Amino acid sequence: MSLSPAAVAARRLLTAASHSSHEGGARTWKILTIVLAIPGVGICMANAYMKAQAHSHGQPEFVPYSHLRIRTKRFPWGDGDHTLFHNSHTNALPKGYESSDH
C-alpha cells in the first residue's frame, strides 16, 4: 500500500511535531512552576496570614455538657486527664479550661 506524497509529508510533519513536543515538556513545566505555582502559593500564604491576623481567637465560654469529656478510664500518659494531643488553649478538661491567660 503506497501513500500519496501529501500523506507522506503530513505523516513526517506530525512525527516531527510529536517528537519536539516531548523534548520541551520539562522546560514548559519548569516555566509554569516558576511563573504560576510559586507566586500562587505565596499569595495563598499571604491570604491565610492576613485572615489569621484579622480574627481574634478567644476561648469560648465553658459549658459543662454531660455528654462531652466523659472519662471512664484515665489516659495512660501524663496525669491521665489530658488527651495525647492536648492544647490547653483550645481543649477543655472535664472541669473547664486550664488557664485563662494566653
From TrEMBL:
Its main location: mitochondrion. InterPro entries: Cyt_c_oxidase_su6a (IPR001349), Cyt_c_oxidase_su6a_CS (IPR018507), Cyt_c_oxidase_su6a_sf (IPR036418). The keyword Transmembrane helix applies. Coiled coil: none annotated. Belongs to the cytochrome c oxidase subunit 6A family. Pathway: Energy metabolism; oxidative phosphorylation. Keywords: Membrane, Mitochondrion, Mitochondrion inner membrane, Oxidoreductase, Transit peptide, Transmembrane, Transmembrane helix. PROSITE patterns: COX6A. The keyword Mitochondrion applies. This is Cytochrome c oxidase subunit.
